[in-house]
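Lecture notes, unit on protein representations.

Consider one protein chain, 387 amino acids long.
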Amino acid sequence: MAALSAFAQFSFVHISDMHVSNIPTSNSDTNAQYFQCAVKEFTALDPKPAFVIVTGDISDVGNQQPYGMYPTITQHLFPPTITNPAVGAYFIDSSKTIPIYFTPGNHEYWTGFDSIHIPISNDTLFYYPKYIAPDMDYVINTDIAIIVFLRSGHDSPYGYPPNPAIIMGTGLSNSQCSWLRNILSSNGNKRKIIVMHHPPVNAAGTNSDGTPFTAATLDTATNSLQNNRTNFLNICDSNHVDVVLAGHEHQNVVANRKGDTISENWPNGPRYVQTAAAFNRSYRIITVDSNFVTVSRPMRSCNSTGVIEVKNSFKFFIFPNPASDRLTIECVPKSDVEILHIEGQIFKRLNAKDIHTTVDISNLLSGIYIIKVQNEEEIAVKKFIKQ
């Protein structure tokens, strides 16, 4: 249990699903770039956040041998003065005034994919506690609030054969539930916040850009906790938990226990809050005082165009967007081009010998993709929608 200095009122940033990939330089890692940009924005917030919380899927495939994805995170995402920090001793600023805390998601258990792209998952963590945070549930304790960090488990197949669109977490053990109940009941006079990767209650919300979320949401338990879900909800009710923060779905939504969509600051019981993916630049600011926990509307870091320019001379354009069969890419200067899925898998590489390049995308599945262009000195990225 970590105790922080007393706060009469404080705020913190919630992000989820960083999905940093295992590429040796941060300039080649789109998701790392977005995170680097975001933390600069977080350090400039006024008031300054007390800390940042990440609810899982920190890396892309966290248990991949030999070291998982974590050396990339420790060496390239944080300020140079704190390269390779000790486990549990991360900060987003060089002066070490804003700590960042993690809880594992299902990607932290992944070792790779099978032939039909269903993830191969361990049932234990190895590299995560070695490089990122202790492999245990823990609590941040202040004078007015407690923030409880819970592991919600590795992948649990949904259906036979497994449906790759529905990725349940194994959920909570009985001992986790007992521990949680004791922690909450012993802090009855404080505001109570729980952070975990899988959403205990699901509902259809919006994507990072505000468009409707259209992924499969069969019921309130879709992509949620397989074990002890109802028990967890009962614990939240009986101990007057204010907010449960989660990710996993890559969407923004707030729901009550029944799965009804509610406002961020609904006053009538626990709020189950999802924040869309950090690799899509989403975050929320959570403000805590002795009377209430205020949840901000979804926010987006960095610029609104989805373009990162290492140098101002680097520009490129893609059209049409959305596209169905062919996509035109204009690069200034000429550059190498990669087309990637939103989570980082590379589908096509080509060399833009001409400034004006047309690409056949008819064989790509519908969804959101990333175009990354780079030459020897510069890199930039944009998103497009394949219809």
